[in-house]
Amino acid sequence: MNFNRAVIKVGSALVAPTIDGCSGKYTLAIAQFITKCHQQGKEIILVSSGGVAAGRTVIQHGSPKLSSATKKAMASVGQMQMMANWQRFFDRPCSQILITQNDLADRQRFISIQETIQIQLANGVLPIVNENDTVTTEDLTIGDNDNLAALVAQACEADSLFILSDIDGVFTKDPKVNDDAVLIPNIDKITDEIYAMAGTSRNHLATGGMKTKIQAAEKAVEHGITTYIINGTKSEVFASLIAQVNPGTRFAADTDIITAKKHWLKHTLKSQGQIVLDKGAVNAVLNKGASLLPAGIKSVNKRFKAGDAIELINAVDNSVIAKGISLYSHHDLKRIMGKHSNDITSILGHEKGDVVVHRDDMVIL
Ligand code: GLU
Prior knowledge:
Elements (H helix, E strand, L loop, with lengths): L4 E6 L1 H4 L8 H16 L3 E6 L2 H5 L12 H20 L6 E6 L1 H5 L1 H16 L3 E6 L12 H12 L4 E6 L20 E2 L4 H6 L13 H12 L3 E6 L4 H7 L6 E3 L3 H13 L3 E7 L1 H9 L9 E5 L7 E6 L5 E6 L4 H7 L7 H5 L13 E3 L1
The site of glutamic acid has 16 residues, from helix 3, strand 4 and helix 7.
């Protein structure tokens, strides 16, 4: 899977698919996917809806149209069930983070949220974020968490955002009424036409199941975060993601932002060590835009930690060909260099992914 840190947003329809509240019907497959990501050394932040849907059975309500206060009362009690429904699938601890969009708009609160999530990720915790519905002054609407997830993805510097719901992605027409509607696998630029295809518009008064998801994608890609809209009711989509096949609609991250990241990597970050590459790896990195795998490493110089910047050296002439962020420490690299990626777990007893330096975390010099 081509990401290191992702926000996965799960909609109410997946968490509490029936009137009986939370269930494992869809969340089990999602939790298994998250566990697979963890096993590959990836970091996940879950943004989960379902508070209102889970609390429906507890709070008395007459008409199907719920007042804002009733929904908040439901959300607050349902939140407990939603958290418990997730925690039962994980051996690692889950944390509950309740925030509002206003919190993320306040610089100091933004940093506080960012620090909390960073420390939790470093300690193997799965952060589970939801809107703090009790204190929001706006009416609660389905889709608020789509936008919240995009803001959380920015706060925790995720490289990817997965929006899981019960629809396959963005179609050329409404697939419910048009047999000839076709799923759009890749969207490079979000235009008014894209909103129109999804049966909605940029107008803030417009409604539509896709609108908030496209809005969220728009917010995320502007910050260099690749975004996917995926059908989380189909367990096979997770197998596709693991096989690096896009099962839904993928919104390409704004490359200017990635360029800015590479600029920072090249000019600001200090290299802590060096990795010497064989001929094949030099060719793959320079000519194929590939990530660096352990098999192509001949030697490792100096001491560095996982996450430190390092220089990639061509063994033939000792020239520096690239600079990148190593996912493994010098100590671990000395043990896996020259080995196949499949052997990483058996050698180290853990795995942080198949690659040593991901191409997105690398700048060619
Ligand atoms: N915070 C709401 C809940 O937990 C969900 C909002 C949304 O679905 O976007 O029910």
